Hints:
Shape: globular
Protein name: Glycosyltransferase RgtA/B/C/D-like domain-containing protein
Strand content: under 5%
Transmembrane segments: 123-143, 152-171, 177-196, 208-241, 247-266, 295-316, 323-342, 348-368, 375-399
Distance between the termini: 41 Å
Number of strands: 4
Helix content: 55-70%
Keywords: Membrane, Transmembrane, Transmembrane helix
Mean pLDDT: 88
Low-confidence stretches: 108-116
Organism: Edaphobacter paludis
Oligomer: single chain
Structural class: mainly alpha
Largest sheet: 2 strands, antiparallel
Radius of gyration: 22 Å
Strand order of the largest sheet: 1-2
Order of helices and strands: EEHHHHHHHHHHHHEHHHEHHH
Amino acid sequence: MRLLKIQIGRPQQLAALLLLFFLAECLWVVNRQEISEHDYRFARCGREMWERPSPLAGYFTTCGNLGGDGTFAYRVAGFPLTAQRVVLLGVDKLRSPENRLYASGSLNGSTWEARHEIGSVKYLLHLPFIFFAMWLGVGLWWVTRRLFGNEGAFFALGLYCCCPEVVRFSVTPNNDVLAMWGLYGLVYTAMGVAHAMQGPRRKWKPRIALLTVALGLTAAAHLLAAMFGFVAALVLMIYLAERRRSYVMQILVSSAVGALVILFAFYAFRPAPFSYVFTGGAGRFWLSLDGVRRFFGNMGNGPIVAATGVAAVLYVGIRRCRYFGNTVPLVMAALLFPLVTTQVVTTPWLWALPFLFTFLGGVFSDLFETRYRKMFLGLTGAVLLTQAMICLTMLPGIAQ
């Protein structure tokens, strides 16, 4: 099968099954969740951003100016609810005046308090974040398959879909899952731009535009993730551009300017709340091992931890595992895990997980090409099966 010039064969179908398994996990959790005050805050303030009411004087929304908390998650949470409201009002206007349900032209005369008029709020609120997590899974599959082949891609995607922490953050409104999505795309898009720079200039513009969008959306999710991604992009592009290195700073500066425009748009082009991006302290960070202890000390991640230990030993001990495709995600994960923010509550160690899974897929794919292929295929199969079983047993706890 071919769809939009993309070949859909057996590997793509199996990857789709893994993503459907991930979707089923998330929907099972969401079905057993109750809307919390945290959820309602994201929905209310997100709808305020889209529907532009008159919030408290001097503030962007009733949640404040959100200089330290990215606006991306609020807009993602509020968009489906606002879209349903617009549809309800549009359908009502098609009725005759005497049969209209909303005679005043708004739901119950209020912009965002008519929760009883909007159906399936729980699913509308959570599904966009599940969608972005699945989108990241597609990106993880695409990157690892191009770098390491089908088997390495299956291993990386399987670990991602069966990671309890990924499921936990995918079923609740938050900026971290969006920052994770944006940062991973930003880093590998930058590498794609650097490779394109070796070819004709007509191929540069689409990838530079994609880099600009990735940087802007990452900044809208979390400023620290965008800052980290910008520095990583600079280093990687200088390394890969070779004879075209003189263009790297021009490309990144233009991308940064475009990203600021995108970020400004998230604040509805209002200078006052936008200024809080630079004064809210979201870019302040320090180093700590708390994230490392939380992830690697969690028994629910036991098979992933074991696979990481094996991969680290193999990376150090086997020369064929030490190459650029494996080293980049390893370095990225090693730098992200100890990051902690000092002014806002966030979890930078979550951003490291796609890079960790990319590293694991790369190392084990190298060993699939040795005479120990069957042994390592059996090992990775056992790791995936055990991790899937553990993840399924943890779903009730995630739903609470």
